[in-house]
Write a structure and sequence with these properties.
The chain is an all-alpha fold and 209 residues long. It is built from seven helices and no strands. The protein has helices at residues 7-14, 23-40, 43-60, 89-114, 117-130, 143-148, 171-208.
Length: 209
């Protein structure tokens, strides 16, 4: 759990859902819902986390990379009133990449929970879109650390546990591990589809004979 305070207090500090949420606030609330889902296994928390982190990524990313939620925003530069923009392009890029990686993990979790093939396909797409943006030397701190240091007044740094200064694993290695898992699940799903299709064809052939 990346939070230093009880979940109820974190929720109070981060505020409720609002169309005016900035990307840092939306991503922090996504983390909160995800960890609440890990504890309580309420499907609504997982679905809410997916929606929130997708919104955060869209607001942060100024490229039209494929995403399960559609094209990314063409003009994410202006933050809503009361929020602060990332302090540099590198910070924006790190936050966007971490939000995308978190989105892919959430989609995998939701696929395993609900069995929705579209979530699995979307997770693979997000991982594959991220890989070209991560060199062997790219290192991003965990999402919670990036949010704590973002300087958004609606996301106090004190809600997060101190994570230190690393060293962190290469981001590309994290992506390859996640993509490998997603591709294995996708291969298994396709194999089951093929087996069902073959069984159906044999049954139709037997009926015809």
């Amino acid at each position: 759990d990346p939070f230093a305070l009880p979940a109820g207090r974190v929720a109070e500090l981060l505020g409720g859902a609002s169309a005016a949420d900035g990307p840092v606030q939306a991503a922090a609330r996504a983390l909160l819902h995800y960890h609440r889902w890990l504890r309580e296994r309420d499907e609504h928390d997982l679905t809410t986390a997916v929606a929130l982190v997708r919104r955060a990524r869209t607001a942060l990313d100024d490229r039209s990379a494929p995403d399960a939620g559609g094209p990314l925003s063409a003009d994410p530069a202006a933050p809503p009133a009361g929020t602060t923009a990332p302090r540099s392009p590198a910070e924006r890029s790190a936050q966007a990449d971490r939000c995308a990686e978190f989105l892919a993990r959430l989609l995998l979790d939701r696929h395993l929970l609900l069995g929705d093939r579209s979530d699995l396909d979307a997770a693979v797409q997000v991982y594959e879109a991220l890989l070209p943006r991560a060199s062997q030397r790219t290192v991003h701190p965990p999402l919670a650390a990036l949010l704590a240091s973002a300087g958004d007044p609606r996301v106090p740094a004190r809600v997060f546990r101190p994570l230190g200064d690393g060293p962190w694993a290469p981001f590309r290695a994290e992506l390859l591990a996640g993509l490998g898992t997603a591709r294995l699940l996708l291969a298994g799903a396709r194999r089951r589809d093929a087996e069902v299709s073959a069984a159906g064809a044999l049954e139709d052939l037997g009926t015809a004979c």
